[in-house]
Write a structure and sequence with these properties.
Layout lengths: L5 H153 L3 H18 L8 E3 L3 E3 L2 E3 L3 E4 L5 E5 L5 H8 L3 H25 L1 H4 L9 E4 L3 H10 L3 H7 L2 E4 L1 H74 L1 H4 L46
Parallel strand pairs: 5-6, 6-7
Antiparallel strand pairs: 1-4, 2-3, 4-5
InterPro entries: DNA_recombination_RmuC
Keywords: Coiled coil, DNA recombination
Function: Involved in DNA recombination.
């Protein structure tokens, strides 16, 4: 075949084109048939899908209704459970709150109970003390009434005269002296007479001082004006009586100063003053209120105004001085007793030393005897055993020598000289 012919080439081209077109047409038909089949299948599937979708919608509606119903039931149940739980929680919170409140209030309750018990105890004690206080007040009133009665009796007795006041003042003075520790037999002398250039005088008390010396106490102060002031109903009369009382105390002080007891007892070592005893602090205070310079004037006149309080302190110092002097005397006695005891112990030590020497000599003699017995007698006596002499099973025991010597008195000093007492060395710092 000649492929160089153009018509032949075109014919071939058209033939090939026709064949290709036929093939394409066949292929297009096939594709169209396949597409149609696929379209039908898709339609079927779409119909099935729509059916399924409808069924699903129906089922969904049914399920929704069921879910709604179930949800409603569940919501009710849940609501009931929530309400129940809320109630339980509320009850738990209430119980917890009650427990917490009870725990917080328990100490308060216990404290209140203790406080109530203490209040009851205090009330009981207060009631008892009130009863006791009432009894004490009643007893105090009775004692006050009795004291007032006794005071009235004493006032009435003191108004009878100077003799009663003097005896009362003397007894008060004696009580103060004895309360201070002074003894009437040794430490002070009462109611004695003294001769002077102006005549015989009679001091109330003479107190002996430690180490020698005396001082005089006078207790003759008049109290008539003071007693009158206590009975006065008018203030003017009372003040006038108090002024007379102060003047009476001053006059007695001046009279006592003029007697110069310190000169009469100068030989006994009297200090240059005399004590004027006022038997009550109130008596002297009343006088000093009206005459403030009375105390200084009395000192200038060598008169010491004393009351039971101040005289007690003064006599207490005197009693202390007596005790100190007695202790000094006892210390001197102790020294003498110690010296005598030391002397006797020294003599006894000498006797002990002599006895030790005698014992040492006796031990030496005994040891010499034992040595002689062993060397001279027992050796000869044992020859009887060699000669078979019947000695009835008895053996001769050898006496033992005494090796221990007599303990020397190392604390005893050397032998005293002739005519001297032996001495002891009681220690490194003891006297010899």
């Amino acid at each position: 075949m000649n492929f160089s012919d153009p018509f032949l080439i075109l014919a071939l081209v058209f033939a090939l084109a026709a064949v290709a077109l036929g093939l394409w047409a066949v292929s297009a038909q096939r594709r169209a048939a396949k597409a149609e089949a696929e379209t039908w299948l898709l339609n079927e599937r779409l119909a099935q899908a729509e059916e399924r979708h409808r069924l699903l919608e129906d089922q969904s509606a049914t399920q929704i209704e069921l879910i709604k119903a179930q949800a409603a039931q569940s919501a009710n149940a849940i609501a009931e459970q929530l309400i129940k739980r809320a109630d339980e929680n509320a009850k738990s919170r209430e119980r917890l709150a009650e427990a917490r409140l009870e725990a917080q209030l328990k100490p308060v309750a216990e404290t209140l109970a203790k406080f109530e018990a203490q209040v009851n105890a205090v009330e009981k004690v207060r009631a008892e003390e009130t009863g006791g206080l009432k009894a004490q007040i009643a007893a105090l009133l009775e004692a006050s009434t009795a004291t007032q009665a006794e005071a009235r009796k004493l006032s009435a007795a003191l108004r009878r005269g100077a003799g009663v006041q003097g005896r009362w003042g003397e007894q008060t003075l004696r009580n103060v002296l004895e309360a201070a520790g002074l003894n009437s037999r040794f430490d002070f002398q009462e109611q004695f007479s003294v001769d002077s250039d102006e005549g015989r005088r009679r001091p109330d008390v003479k107190v002996t001082l430690p180490g020698g010396g005396v001082f005089v106490i006078d207790a003759k102060c008049s109290l008539n004006a003071f007693l009158e002031s206590q009975e006065a109903t008018d203030e003017v009369l009372r003040e006038a009586a108090m002024v007379r009382h102060a003047a009476s105390v001053r006059a007695h002080m001046q009279s006592l100063s003029s007697k110069a007891y310190w000169d009469q007892f100068a030989g006994e070592g009297s200090p240059d003053f005399v004590a004027m005893f006022v038997p009550g602090d109130g008596f002297l205070a009343a006088a000093l209120d009206r005459l403030p310079e009375l105390m200084a004037e009395a000192m200038d006149r060598r008169v010491v105004l004393v009351t039971p309080t101040t005289l007690f302190a003064l006599c207490k110092a005197v009693a202390y001085g007596w005790r100190a002097e007695d202790q000094a005397k006892n210390a001197a006695r102790i020294v003498e007793v110690g010296r005598e005891l030391y002397k006797r112990v020294s003599v006894m030590g000498a006797h002990a030393g002599a006895m030790g020497k005698a014992l040492e000599s006796a031990v030496g003699k005994y040891n010499q005897f034992v040595g002689s017995l062993e060397s001279q007698v027992l050796t000869q006596a044992r020859r009887f055993e060699d000669l078979s002499v019947d000695h009835e099973g008895k053996k001769i025991d050898e006496p033992a020598a005494i090796d221990q010597g007599v303990r020397p008195l190392t604390k005893l000093s050397a032998e005293p000289a002739v005519g001297q007492s032996p001495t002891l060395t009681l220690g490194n710092d003891a006297p010899t």
